[in-house]
Design a protein that fits this description.
This protein is about 15% helix and about 40% strand. It has about 400 residues and is α+β, with helices and mostly antiparallel strands. It has three domains: about 140 residues, Immunoglobulin-like (Sandwich); about 80 residues, Immunoglobulin-like; about 110 residues, Immunoglobulins (Immunoglobulin-like), CATH 2.60.40. Strand 16 and strand 17 form a beta hairpin. Helix 1 packs antiparallel against helix 4. The relative contact order is 0.14.
């Protein structure tokens, strides 16, 4: 009885340890991107449409899991029987410690003219286990050649809206059991009862509505192009006085390098901020940043994007960092000078070509099998518990002898 009690106690303690240890390990779910077909893309009739799925798997710090690889990808067109895609896994060029890349490839042939629905599902596996690690699925809608407009879009129309919110309404000549819209060829969003497009970026947009009936037939509207001029770009002001004041407290003369505290304000919430030095590439920054710079003269411009994606820029500001100075070489500009320096140029004067372009990846729904992690630690717990039991029996035999 005492041996059994000890074994059970050891298992309980090891189970607690396993939960605690698990919290210290890291696992990142794979990033999954559908490269082709592209949502809402129009493909030529009788063309070969490539199916390409990329899965990026990251190195895990959890012991004994083994290498994660893409195991299977299957796809179905318009509800027809599934087909398998070929799978290829490659080690990151920097080494396995940086993860793996899995690719699924196939060719889609013989599709009729009109709208089509592609359903993709797949999973990854871990080298030391036969179970699925992460499962994912995604539905892509696209067009072959042209569509018969069973669905008619009422809003938006081919016009310019002075608001960053636009409603989506439509009619269908056939009863629909599901409907969704694609904005700017991004993933389709459910909208059987209509929807509102919010936080629209200024500029030109495209929208198409898709729908399915009870028989699984897929329909689509014509693509609608519209534009938005709802608001101006964010206003960015550089806090010159604060930057000059902070300069005197920053390290200088350290290996021919010094520091500059960039301080700025934006008049609204932002989705991205960055800066450019001497006309160079934009660098993403998180708020007021400390710049580590060599001695010299710099011209800085701060950029920001609002929640709609509209981008604005500050006026350029030029400053000089010299060896041995501690702020005494700088003078606080007058209010007139300061207002001129922090004046935000008009949108027409802003060049957005140097601003970073935004990219989007289609990420699948993912579910990770944490039972695998539990299995790893339970296996370790059983081994240690067995060792405790053997050790206890040996001690008992020695005492009885």
């Amino acid at each position: 009885m005492s041996v059994i009690a000890l074994s059970l106690s050891a298992m309980i303690l090891l189970g607690i340890f396993s939960q605690s240890a698990l919290a210290n390990f890291k696992y990142s779910k794979p990033g999954v991107t559908v490269i082709s077909p592209v949502t809402d893309m129009v493909y030529e009739y009788n063309s070969e449409i490539p199916l390409v799925v990329k899965v990026e798997m990251y190195h895990s710090s959890i012991p004994n899991l083994g290498v994660e690889e893409l195991a299977e990808v299957r796809f179905s067109i318009d509800g027809q029987p599934e087909n398998s895609a070929s799978i290829k896994n490659e080690v990151d060029s920097r080494g396995s410690m940086y993860g793996m890349y899995g690719y699924a490839n196939a060719i889609i042939l013989g599709l009729s003219r009109g709208a089509h629905k592609l359903f993709i599902r797949g999973h990854t596996s871990l080298g030391n286990f036969s179970n699925q690690a992460v499962s994912f699925n995604r539905t892509i809608y696209f067009i072959v050649d042209s569509v018969f407009p069973v669905i008619s879009v009422i809003s938006p129309q081919h016009t310019t809206y002075n608001s960053n919110t636009v409603s989506v309404t439509f009619n269908s000549y056939r009863p629909l059991t599901w409907a969704g819209y694609s904005l700017d060829q991004k993933m389709v969003v459910d909208c059987i009862d209509g929807a509102n497009l919010t936080y629209l970026q200024n500029g030109v947009h495209s929208l198409r509505v898709y729908g399915t009936d009870g028989g699984g037939n897929v329909y689509a509207s014509q693509s609608i192009a519209f534009s938005v001029e709802g608001k101006g770009p964010p206003v960015i002001t550089l806090d010159i006085e604060k930057m000059i004041f902070d300069r005197q407290f920053l390290p200088s003369d350290y290996k021919n390098m010094t520091y500059w505290h960039l301080v700025f304000h934006v008049n609204e919430p932002t989705s991205w901020t960055g800066c450019s030095l001497n006309g160079g590439a934009n660098q993403t920054i998180e708020g007021n940043a400390y710049l580590h710079l060599a001695y010299g003269t710099y011209t800085i411009v701060v950029y920001a994007a609002d929640l709609c994606g509209n981008k604005g820029a500050s006026a350029p500001y030029t400053f000089t960092l010299g060896s041995g100075e501690a702020g005494s070489a700088y003078t606080v500009p007058s209010s007139t000078q300061n207002s001129a320096l922090t004046q935000t140029p008009s949108p027409a004067g802003n060049s957005t070509s140097a601003l970073p372009t935004e990219t989007s990846e289609i990420t699948f729904q993912e579910s990770f099998s944490w039972q695998l992690i539990g299995a790893v630690f339970m296996a370790g717990a059983a081994m240690v518990a067995g060792g405790v039991l053997v050790h206890f029996k040996k001690r008992k035999r020695c005492g009885s002898a």
